[in-house]
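Section 3.1: Structural characterization of target chains.
Under the original work plan, the team committed to producing a structural model for every single-chain target entering the pipeline before any wet-lab resources were allocated. The record below documents one such target. The sequence was received from the expression subgroup and is listed exactly as submitted; it comprises 303 residues.
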Amino acid sequence: MINNKGQSLELFFIDGKPDGMLTAEVFNWTGHVLMAPRTRLGAALKRPEASYTGVYLLFGEDDDGPLAYIGEGEDIGGRIKSHDTSKDWWTTAVLITTAGNNLNKAHAKYLESRLVEEARRAGKIRLDNGNTPPRSSLSEAAQANMESFLEYLMMVLPAIRIDSFLAQTRPQAKTGSVSSADPDEPDTVFELRTPKHAIEAKAVLTDGEFVVLTGSKVSPRWRGKSTHHTGYSKLHGELVAAGVIRPEGELAVFTENYAFKSPSAAAAVVNGRPTNGTTEWRLPEGKTYKAWEAEKLEPEALT
């Protein structure tokens, strides 16, 4: 299990360019990640790790939007080479192996299955895979090792701008809220009320995320102007489609805790229109998020 202590991630830009090939490794993790644009596929497949056993991810888009494929192999370079002619939509390949080529076929099949499961659970991208492949039979110890490997991988992938496996839903705590990672910093509950539409939502700030809590009453549809179904209007529709927001009478409710990147993103989805979350979210006594944040920053400014 990965603990809550900081981790050191080493990124190496092979071509010396941010959009070229790169490798990613974490101290004390055996995993190795190579990401390459399709235009650099030839160079990527000449590297030693391309002939290792592992899993690979292909990312791109077709006429219906973003698309991905997850595969495995004992020679992942060979597998990717076969997709170079059979799949013309992908633009980026990610090769996941170990520094010492220590994965075997069963490990790779287990990781492939789990990655497909996680991608479908997150629901952020369509998969070109058919059914979810079954997990290979591994010993209890080997499964634990692969789950630990996967935890590190789920930390590395978002760091290289791949968030397809990063679910924004958060588990419900027994108290009905998300617990703060810092025991000395208890959660502060913010509220957003729009009486005209009977909207009442609650949220907490935890681990740098603004999490709207289960049971919050929100707009069942996007009310703001939207000439293109993009931005927060698109996010609102996606959450309704995914069942995170469930219509209930004239309103809708959050069926799960959901993490947003900012108070304004959360407020826009809750109200169903563009909203300044720093002034709309308030503490129970009435203080705005903006004023609360200013007070939190003030002691740091004086030191």
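Confidence is low (pLDDT under 50) at residues 173-185.
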